[in-house]
């Protein structure tokens, strides 16, 4: 059913820390790997070794340059996957009921065998979180690794999304936002977690932690103390050499 | 947005077809027998042809029947239902006219109303999308409806109605362009709100996620050159409305009527191409592809 649940028992989602993300794209690769080998149609690559390769990804990392009014510009790496919105516009537009939001945990999923590949849900998502697979012609999106988080065949440490598990800088966190004491709720509270494009009214579950304030540089040139001249008035042998050279014709130019 | 031919053909032809069905339902032209048969065949070819074209852009057209299930929430599903109900009802009405030379007035009126509802539902598929500020506006259904009714009157051979309606559709079109051009900026969506980084400073897209393109870029980040767009706007306006209006004021001739219809069709195609190609999806902000700052 493409009617949205009024509320969900749990609100599972991710916190993404823009302060610690180093832009290594490891989450992109592990997401692609896990979701190609497991649940649903594999994520296709078209013309993978040709001149114009294009592929399906559920998670992509952008990089932005932000220039403050004062101080140097910063580079901020910006992973983006489905935000599992509470008011998910991608769900209500779906004509077949293939797109739905689970009432038990809030995960937004696509039932691939009911998807007609009309693409309307991808149009309705402001964040570019849905991609039509180039080979299977069904809509693909982040499943919050539903086949990992509830998977009793995996060791407990692996029952977390592939992207979270793999991130080498600990920039991705998984948890239940409905529980005010969960890791993700605490992080969001303490670090001022924010919504993307809140004016779209989608009420995203995933939150982004803004980069921490950078400390200011004390001197304009950090290398200055090291490069200061050792002495202004050469003495000893150097002084003699300096004077001798200056005495030569044209030496004082 | 990517101006996919299947969707342009679908909205143009079925809009025109349902426009003609609307006028037939109202009893214009008040024909029966073979003439009615010809009119209905034309209307159904357009309406059904458009609907069939729309399935060409589906990844899985063999599952198209599933699209009838979500009418409670989805405009696409509602459009499916409305078009099928209209077509069935008006087939009965048409059979009365063609075979029994009888007009079931009330059936015609209901069918006419349903034709408009179908076109309205089509327009709402686009109008509902907050992600495309240019479409997310009351003028989108108004444009689809005036185009459909004006084109329908032209096809139905009703210059009395077609003349003012074509003029009105042309005006709506001009308004849609002038007002639509500023809607993304007025919507307040910027790269700063998209990334939430605006609080730190000025945001610029530094590196895209991939060196190549992707589905999102192809589907939603279409950019049309300004010169190309203004040329097409001129064609849409002149061919779609200007020329037919002039031709209709000439003394009547079948040739001129046919030329007027053809010209209108070309104009509406151009307009529909622009409707898609010029529509800016907010996801472009993440790719630094929108001028709005
Ligand atoms: S991020 Fe996009 S795809 Fe995911 S729930 Fe929100 S609107 Fe839907
Ligand atoms: S592409 Fe599939 S999931 Fe998306 S709206 Fe169409 S049928 Fe629903
Ligand atoms: S939760 Fe799973 S599917 Fe979603 S972005 Fe992470 S790895 Fe990909």
Question: Can you put this structure into words, describing what you see?
Answer:
The complex is a heterodimer of chains A (253) and B (293). Chain A has 253 residues and is α+β, with helices and mostly antiparallel strands. Chain A has one domain (12-216): 2-Layer Sandwich (Alpha-Beta Plaits). Chain A has helices at residues 26-37, 89-92, 120-124, 146-149, 162-166, 183-191, 224-227, 236-247; strands at residues 12-17, 45-46, 54-55, 59-67, 74-81, 99-101, 108-110, 130-132, 139-141, 172-176, 207-209. In chain A, the strands form 5 sheets. A 3-stranded mixed sheet of chain A has the order 10-1-11. A two-stranded antiparallel ribbon of chain A has the order 2-3. In chain A, strand 4 (59-67) and strand 5 (74-81) form a beta hairpin. The radius of gyration of chain A is 27 Å and the shape is elongated. With 293 residues, chain B is mostly helical. Chain B has 2 domains: 1-128, no CATH class; 162-293, no CATH class. Helices cover 67% and strands 2% of the residues of chain B. Chain B has 11 helices and 1 strand. The longest helix of chain B is centred in the N-terminal third of the chain and has 25 residues, at 75-99. The mean pLDDT of chain B is 94. Chains A and B meet through strand 3, strand 4, strand 5 and helix 3 of A and helix 3, helix 8, strand 1 and helix 9 of B.
Q: Topology of this structure?
A:
The complex is a heterodimer of chains A (253) and B (293).
Chain A: E1 12-17, H1 26-37, E2 45-46, E3 54-55, E4 59-67, E5 74-81, H2 89-92, E6 99-101, E7 108-110, H3 120-124, E8 130-132, E9 139-141, H4 146-149, H5 162-166, E10 172-176, H6 183-191, E11 207-209, H7 224-227, H8 236-247
Parallel strand pairs in A: 1-11
Antiparallel strand pairs in A: 1-10, 2-3, 4-5, 6-7, 8-9
Chain B: H1 5-26, H2 33-55, H3 75-99, H4 105-127, H5 139-155, H6 159-180, H7 183-187, H8 191-195, E1 202-207, H9 215-220, H10 226-249, H11 254-277
Helix pairs in contact in B: 1-2, 1-4, 1-5, 1-11, 2-3, 3-4, 4-5, 5-6, 5-11, 6-10, 10-11
The complex binds iron/sulfur cluster (3 copies).
One iron/sulfur cluster binds at residues 31, 34-35, 58-59, 81, 142-145, 161-163 of chain A.
């Amino acid at each position: 059913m493409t009617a949205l649940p009024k509320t969900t028992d749990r609100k599972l989602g991710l916190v993404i820390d823009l302060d610690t993300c180093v832009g290594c794209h490891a989450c992109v690769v592990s997401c692609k790997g896990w979701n190609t080998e497991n649940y649903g149609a594999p994520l296709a690559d078209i013309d993978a070794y040709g001149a114009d390769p294009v592929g399906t990804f559920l998670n992509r990392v952008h990089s932005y340059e932000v220039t403050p009014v004062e101080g140097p510009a910063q580079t901020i790496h910006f992973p983006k996957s489905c935000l599992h919105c509470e008011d998910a516009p991608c769900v209500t537009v779906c004509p077949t009921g293939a797109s739905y939001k689970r009432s038990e945990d809030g995960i937004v999923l696509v039932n691939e065998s009911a998807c007609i590949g009309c693409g309307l849900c991808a149009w309705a998502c402001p964040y570019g979180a849905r991609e039509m697979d180039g080979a299977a012609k069904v809509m693909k999106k982040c499943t919050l690794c539903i086949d990992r988080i509830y998977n009793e065949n995996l060791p407990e440490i692996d029952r977390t999304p592939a992207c979270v598990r793999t991130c080498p800088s600990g920039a991705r966190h998984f948890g239940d936002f409905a529980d005010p004491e969960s890791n993700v709720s605490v992080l969001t509270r303490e670090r001022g977690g924010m919504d993307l494009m809140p004016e779209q009214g989608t009420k995203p579950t995933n939150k982004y932690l803004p980069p921490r304030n950078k400390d200011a540089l004390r001197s304009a040139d950090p290398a200055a103390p090291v490069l200061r001249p050792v002495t202004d008035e050469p003495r000893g042998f150097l002084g003699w050499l300096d004077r001798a050279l200056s005495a030569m014709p044209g030496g004082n130019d | 947005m990517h101006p996919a031919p299947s969707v342009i053909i679908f909205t143009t032809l079925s809009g025109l077809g349902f426009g003609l069905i609307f006028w037939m339902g109202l009893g214009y032209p008040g024909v029966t027998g073979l003439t009615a048969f010809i009119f209905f065949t034309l209307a159904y070819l357009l309406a059904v042809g458009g609907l069939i074209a729309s399935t060409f852009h589906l990844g899985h057209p063999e599952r198209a029947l599933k699209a009838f299930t979500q009418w409670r929430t989805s405009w696409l599903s509602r459009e499916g239902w409305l078009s099928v109900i209209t077509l069935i009802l008006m087939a009965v009405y048409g059979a009365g006219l063609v075979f029994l030379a009888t007009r079931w007035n009330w059936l015609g009126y209901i069918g006419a109303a349903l034709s408009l509802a179908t076109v309205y539902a089509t327009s709402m598929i686009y109008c509902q999308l907050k992600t495309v500020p240019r479409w997310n506006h009351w003028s989108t259904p108004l444009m689809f409806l005036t185009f459909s009714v004006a084109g329908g009157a032209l096809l139905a051979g009703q210059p009395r109605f077609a003349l003012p309606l074509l003029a009105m559709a042309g005006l709506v079109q001009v308004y849609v362009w002038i007002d639509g051009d500023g809607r993304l900026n007025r919507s307040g969506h910027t790269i700063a709100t998209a990334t939430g980084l605006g609080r730190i400073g000025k945001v610029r897209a530094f590196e895209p996620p991939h060196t190549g393109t992707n589905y999102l870029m192809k589907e939603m980040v279409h950019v049309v050159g300004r010169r190309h767009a203004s040329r097409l706007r001129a064609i849409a306006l002149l061919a779609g409305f200007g020329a037919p209006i002039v031709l209709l004021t000439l003394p009547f001739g079948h040739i001129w009527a046919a030329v007027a219809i053809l010209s209108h069709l070309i104009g509406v195609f151009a307009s529909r191409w622009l409707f898609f190609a010029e529509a800016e999806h907010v996801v472009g902000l993440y790719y630094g592809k929108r001028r709005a700052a």
